[in-house]
Design brief:
The protein is of the alpha/beta class and 457 residues long. A hairpin with a 2-residue loop joins strand 7 and strand 8. Helix 4 packs antiparallel against helix 5, helix 4 crosses helix 6 and helix 9 packs parallel to helix 10. The longest helix is centred in the first third of the chain and has 29 residues.
């Protein structure tokens, strides 16, 4: 499923939240109290203000906690991506502080409401109310750093592309400045910025295309350099996360013209270093910038090296040019076809899924409870129909339409109401109903029946 982080509401600062809460308490609770009132009325007046403020703080903090996604409930792709961008521990600490503050505010309100029950004057009740609201507002103000951090996370989450980890996906990867963004613009309707310098793309971009009347998403990743995993920065780790968690077809882009600033050997070295991420994924080696240097212009040794890594990973090799758009359609069709074949094969080979369905099925087999024979009860009409079928004499039951045509057609044929009666004796069917039965007029009861039916309708 695709996650929509743009619906997260703005997180206010601690001071702004306190102003909102106190203003709402002042506007929506009674404001007039006199010392001449009964002490019970005075207590209820101030207890209401404390409870109202506590409920508002609880709702506001709960809304903040509910808006932000729980890392344990997210897809591993988004969970690791948030860990790279925002530090998972810091994120959990910020949400934990908000949750703890909500519990503290509830405890403060509960304690001071209990003390107000024993206050003996307006002054004491007012003092307890001021202390309670002051302590609750202090707790909220102390959350100002956490609110600031969560607001920055919210802004960044809203700018993340909406990537569905479960749908049909193509991932573009490779060294910087090899033509990934240009290929992205040619494959989809996206408008990714393309420049002549490296690391133009510094975050994940997603575009959409249609192949065989089915929507596809194409993910453009930042360039990855060939060095150990622990030395990669945040920009490169976004590409690594996408390759690790998205079940997609990988389009490894190579610049055979070497105008990107990296030799073909360096590009093949990167392919070998990140090939563990290609496990259980179909791969297409895309050789770009053939308008500057074609496949035939390469040396035989270079061709053999590229074909060897392609054969090792069971990948396809396609040459294309983003400038002339030659080979772009071949890349799209081949990548989509092999991903469809792979997904189909994966589903058909998943025997565990079939076993999981079988484990949920139970076939109940009835057992005999005694020695009494209980033959099946078959209606007589069914037995007659079976005999007729065996003898070849199929007796077809006439419909009302056929009977109507036999009896003279519409306007002449009349269906007797008595023909549908269910009677014990067939000889009673067309008997005239009695006018007097058991000393009573039958028509009186029939009229009453019709009257009650009409009233119900």
């Amino acid at each position: 499923m695709a996650y929509n982080f743009k619906n997260i509401e703005v997180v206010p600062t601690g001071s702004a939240l306190v102003d909102i809460l106190l203003s709402k308490t002042q506007r929506q609770t009674p404001t007039v109290i006199h010392k001449g009132f009964e002490i019970q009325r005075i207590r209820r007046f101030y207890m209401r203000k404390v409870k109202f403020t506590q409920q508002n703080i609880h709702e506001k903090l709960s809304k903040i906690l509910d808006n932000f996604p729980k890392l344990d409930d997210l897809h591993p792709f988004y969970s690791d991506l948030m860990n790279i961008l925002y530090d998972k521990d810091h994120y959990k600490i910020a949400l934990g502080q908000v949750s703890k503050a909500r519990t503290i505010v509830d405890g403060i309100a509960k304690d001071y409401v209990r003390m107000m029950k024993y206050a003996d004057s307006l002054y004491r009740c007012k003092t307890l109310k001021k202390v309670a609201l002051g302590r609750m507002c202090t707790v909220v103000k102390k959350l100002n750093p956490s609110f600031g951090y969560l607001e920055e996370v919210r802004k960044h989450l809203a700018r993340l592309p909406s990537i569905d980890p479960t749908t049909r996906t193509l991932i573009l990867t490779g060294l910087p400045n090899v033509g990934k963004s240009s290929l992205m613009n040619n494959l989809t309707d996206a408008n990714v910025d393309v420049q002549s310098y490296a690391f133009t793309t510094q975050s994940l971009f997603v575009g959409h295309t249609v192949y065989k009347c089915v929507p596809w998403q194409v993910v453009d990743t930042p360039g990855v350099l060939d060095h150990p995993l622990e030395q990669r920065n945040t920009i490169e780790m976004q590409a690594i996360t996408a390759l690790a968690h998205l079940n997609a077809c990988v389009l490894f882009v190579m610049d055979i013209s070497e105008t990107c600033g990296y030799y073909i050997d360096a590009q093949m070295s990167l392919f070998n270093s990140i090939k563990p991420l290609f496990k259980n994924k179909p791969i297409v080696l895309v050789l770009t910038k053939t308008d500057l240097k074609s496949w035939n212009d390469l040396s035989q040794e270079t061709k053999d090296a590229i074909e060897s890594i392609g054969k090792e990973q069971n990948s396809y090799i396609i040459a294309m040019s983003n400038k002339t758009k030659e080979g772009v359609d071949d890349v799209k069709s081949k990548a989509c076809d092999i991903l469809l074949d792979y997904r189909f094969a994966q589903k058909s080979e998943n025997a565990g899924k079939m076993r999981a369905v079988e484990n949920r099925l139970h076939v109940a087999v009835p057992q005999k409870r005694d020695g009494k024979e209980r033959p099946p009860q078959i209606p007589e009409s069914v037995l007659i129909a079976r005999q007729n079928m065996k003898s070849g004499e199929e007796v077809k039951r006439k419909t009302i339409k056929e009977i109507q045509e036999e009896e003279g057609g519409a306007g002449v044929f009349y269906v007797h109401p008595e023909s549908h009666y269910i009677l014990e004796d067939e000889s009673w069917r067309y008997d005239a109903p009695p006018e007097i039965f058991a000393g009573r007029n039958v028509a009186d009861y029939i009229c009453l029946l019709y009257t009650s039916d009409a009233a119900d309708e």
